[in-house]
Every structure is written in C-alpha cells, then in structure tokens.
Amino acid sequence: MKAIVCPDYGPVSNLDYRDLPDPEPGPDHVVIKSEAIGVNYPDGLLVQGLYQAKPETPFVPGMEAAGVVESIGRNVIHVKPGDRVVTLLDHGSYAEKVLAPASRVYALPDTMSCEDACALMCAWGTAHHGLRQRANLKAGETLLVLGAAGSTGLAAVSIGKAIGAHVIAVASTAEKQTACLEAGADVALPYEGLREALKSYPGRGVDVAFDPVGGAGFDVAARAMARNGRLLVVGFASGEIPKLPVNLVLLKEYSVIGVFWGSFVAKEPAVYAANNRELFAWHSTGLIKPRIDERQPLAKAATALQRILDRGAIGKTILIP
C-alpha cells in the first residue's frame, strides 16, 4: 500500500510518499481501506516534533480515516468486513489502509459521508468537548470564537449555535468572515479593531471565549470576559503562547480553562463516545454540516498540511487515497 511517512522530525516538506506492507489485524484490531483521510493542525506539529506526543520515527502521521472495513481480528464483534466506519488514532491514518484498535472504530450512518465523518472526529470533537464539558456553554450565552474560519473554529461556531448561544466569530479576511456567517455566526469581526468592537458590542461581555490561536487575540479576549465567564485555551496556531495578566481574572472573576482533547479521549472514553453520539445525531438531522475546504490526493499530504499550518484553509482538508 501507499502511505505518507515521517522519516525524522523536521519540516513537513520532508514527508515521504512510499510503499509499505499492508497491515494485518491483531485479535482486537480492524483494517480499514481508506476513502477519506482528515488533515489537522496537530498533524503538522507532530511531524515537526512540536507536539506533546513524540512517536518513534519513522512513523505514519494522521489521526482520522474513514472507509470500508477490509478485515477484523477474532475478538471484534461490533463491525464486520464491508461496513462503513471511521477511526480516530494517535497517528497512522495517512495511508491507503489503516490499522485501528477496534475500540476506536465507529460505524457510520448511511446519511454521513466519509469526508464528514473525518471532520467530526478531531476538529469537531475538540470544539464539542471544549464547549460542552469544559465551558458548559448554555443557550442564550455569548460565545466568542477566535480563529473561527479554521476547521476547529468553524466547528465551534456551528456547535455554539446548535446549543443556542449568540456567536461572535473572529477571522482575518472577508472571505473567512463570510464562511463564519454561513456556518451560523451571528456576527463576524476582523482582528483589526477587535477590542474596540467588543467594547461597543451590546451586552455584559463574553460568557465563553474559544481560542485555538493564542497571540494578540487572546489578550483581547482576556479583557472582554464577563463575570463568571470561561476563557478556553485550545491551542496556539499563531505560534505565540500569550501571557495572562492574572489581575484581570481576579477583577473580572472569570475562569481560564485548558482544553486538551487528546487527554480527554484517553481518560474519559465513555463521555467521548456520548459526545460522538450527539454530533452524529445533529449531523443526521441537518443541524450541523462540516465545511470541506479542499480535497487533495494522498501524495500531496505535505502541501495540504503546510496550507493548514499557514492558516490558509477555511474548514476541513481531506486527503483522498
């Protein structure tokens, strides 16, 4: 089979498209013939050696793949060859065939495409966990989403609207702001002049801020929080880890909350499974719909990944084997 291999930690341009042996399932594993592979910002951090996890090189990157079950181990009973499924991995999905633990394989409803299934795993899973478990976002609250045109940001916009929040999306260009409005945002703002815009915005402040970007936007959000607000630290796509003036937390009486989705999935699998059920149910009724930004052949993984690292994507990027 063909796969993308990270031979050693370094720039994504070093990724290699090569032949690897077809995987064989162990007793508790499933082999999936991929039809769609999700590309995520953390994939780029992983191959550069900048992520929390550091698998031994060489390795195949990628966390999401959806397709058809090709073979199963003897202990696997919830799926069978021919079933359409999606899987979530620590790494290993950038390949024509994927070996996945059976516990991480989920059957797809007939109404869901493989591309949408990949989108709902990491990006939407992160946003859902952040807003549901970490922020406990409620209907009627005000949600501020920074980096709102990326795959995780657009997911936060849509999930916020599904919960019933008033959503303020922040994105860098007019095209991205339009995408946020199409995803359901009530207001879409640029970063330029954001502090003043939020000051003049009617209401008592931001109840929940969702920040996967860091940098200057975080500083603005930290000053816009309402009393009892929740400022979610999701990531640092800007490359800048901000410093928090903790006197603001004291004076405004809000909370700063970390969102580490990988830890959540590992430590609370039952809650994660319940989150997936809610996302799948929302998708089946049309309440949410991931935006697929672009499709690239598997061989072009490095190009697709670099575009995400450069914050050029609007929504989800998919690799097609």
UniProtKB/TrEMBL annotation:
Domain annotation Enoyl reductase (ER): ranges: 10-319
Pfam families: ADH_N, ADH_zinc_N
InterPro entries: ADH-like_C, ADH-like_N, ER, GroES-like_sf, NAD(P)-bd_dom_sf, Zn-ADH-like_protein
PANTHER family assigned to the protein according to its UniProt record, in alphabetical order: QUINONE OXIDOREDUCTASE-LIKE PROTEIN 2, SHORT-CHAIN DEHYDROGENASE/REDUCTASE
CDD domains (alphabetical): QOR1
Tree of life domain: Bacteria
Name of the protein in question: NADPH:quinone oxidoreductase family protein
Organism for this UniProt entry: Hoeflea ulvae
